[in-house]
Amino acid sequence: MPQRMDSAKIRYMVLMGLLFAIMLVLSYVESAVQFPMLAPGIKLGLSNIVVMYSLFFLKKSGALVLAVLKSLFVLLTRGLVAAILSFCGGILSISVMILLMLLFKERISYLVTSIAGAIFHNLGQLTAISLLYTNLLLWTYLPVLLVAGVIAGTATAALLKTTLSVLGKLNLK
């Protein structure tokens, strides 16, 4: 006889599905809209808003699941190299954000978490691409990626903070 899932599990699964859909939409919007003020290949990382929401208000493992699902989607839509970059950047970013949250508990801000996540996402991608193409010259781009990480992290933290009031009204927990 099949076991019945309780409503809390169903609610969580539906919420994760919605968050994944939002993550994909934000990723698509980000790819479609060019930011000329940013360096080539640099994006704001809008889907990190969803990851941070999951980290702060849901299960931390859910953020990891979202990152893996996004990488699989990238594999299907943009190919293997893009998926590897998405996976390496996403997993390193989330791992660092979780570590910071565990170390600093409630004392860590969205801003610090987001900036660290953005910087380590860039580092994860830079490491992966330099290993894939065995090109250490790519590391000369590191200063640009660090500055971009601070800018992107600040933007996504601000966007998360402004959307929290709307999300709070939806009673998603």
Oligomer: single chain
Low-confidence stretches: none
Question: Number of helix segments?
Answer: 6
Q: Please bin the fraction of helical residues.
A: over 70%
State the name of the first-level CATH class: Mainly Alpha
Indicate how many domains the architecture comprises. Answer: 1
The general outline is globular
Please give the structural blueprint:
Blueprint (H helix, E strand, L loop, with lengths): L6 H26 L15 H10 L2 H19 L1 H25 L5 H23 L9 H29 L3
Can you tag this structure with a few keywords?
173 residues, 6 helices, Arp2/3 complex 21 kDa subunit ARPC3, mainly alpha
Q: What features would you describe in this structure?
A:
The protein has 173 residues and is mostly helical. It has six helices and no strands. The chain starts with 6 loop residues before the first helix and ends with a helix. It has one domain (7-170): Arp2/3 complex 21 kDa subunit ARPC3. It has helices spanning 7-32, 48-57, 60-78, 80-104, 110-132, 142-170. Helix 2 packs antiparallel against helix 3 (60-78). The model has no long low-confidence stretch (mean pLDDT 88).
Summarize the structure.
The protein is mainly alpha-helical. 76% of the residues lie in helices and 0% in strands. The mean pLDDT is 88.
